[in-house]
Please model this.
Amino acid sequence: MADEELEKDLYKNWVRGAKGLEYLQEGLQKFVGGKVQHCRNQSLQKIINGLPTGSARQCNHCTSQNLLPEHAKQKNACNRSTCIEQFPNNCFGSKPNGRRKCPNGICSKLYDEIVLDHSSRDPLWKNTDPSSWGSDRLGWSFAKCFQTTTGPGISASLTDAAGLLSILINNLTMQNWLACNDMSSKVTCPFNRARDIRNAILHSSKLELDNPTLSYYLDTFMTVLQDAKCLLHCDGSKQAVDKLLQLKKQQINIRQEDETKLIQNRKEALSELEERTAEGLREIDDRTATAISTFKKDVDNRTNTALSEIEQTKATAKLNVIEEKRSALSDIEEAKRGAEKDFKDNTKAALSE
Ligand SMILES: [Zn+2]
Ligand SMILES: [Zn+2]
Model:
């Protein structure tokens, strides 16, 4: 009986953890939504300011299929030495056929801006629609480039905690509004830790959490929402912290609809995990392909160098032989002339004797 009670408590703790994730999402959405709009507008404005007067200020002709990035070349596919992305194979410029620069001078430049504003220069292109980068009122199709997994969300309020955290972690401009100054650290950065915790909760096979773990999880969520620079002063995050404190203080009674919703969240997170595994495998394939082609190029280069060295040696050797032959011949000529002279001299001497 006691075991059963404990199991129930551990399960209830898991539900509290999953519920905590919802509060974290609520506490972040307004802040992230506002900053995303600001970042998108700022990047777009910078590009538009550089256009000749009278130019169109918006473009909806560019898509994932036809857009060529500003840094890319139509004739030469992007590669390690020409691409600004961490994985050139992911770049639109790696398959330049059928692509062209934005006819309005906007989207190709915005593409490059997004890459340069990504902390690891690895935006998630398959999650976004370039034709709405400028027109989408909330800027969310721009924001999605900074997520790490694809998601259906079309706004901050419809994006889960992991998606919002990823945008904060991956977008360099966003980091200006955060006190945390090492977003890449899994140890010191609470945003990074919270994202890992989200995965630990939703990807766990056992729906159980012990008390110390749950406390640590909820404390981390509160640390995120109390980031000293801006979040600490936002109403949305203050309310979420209050809810998290309540959740930490007392055990809960789980309502049926809550339970159904949290299990659904977990199901979605698990399907995203499968997608990530597939994505990881694809990335490994891409990287292997790049490594093989780099290796082959290197071998080709070295073979070419070696061959040209051999040719050079052969030519030099040939010259040497010719030179030696010439000097040998001239030696023979000389010897012949010497011998002829000696013969003549001897004959002369014999005749005169
Ligand atoms: Zn490229
Ligand atoms: Zn365009």
In short: The chain has one domain: 2-301.
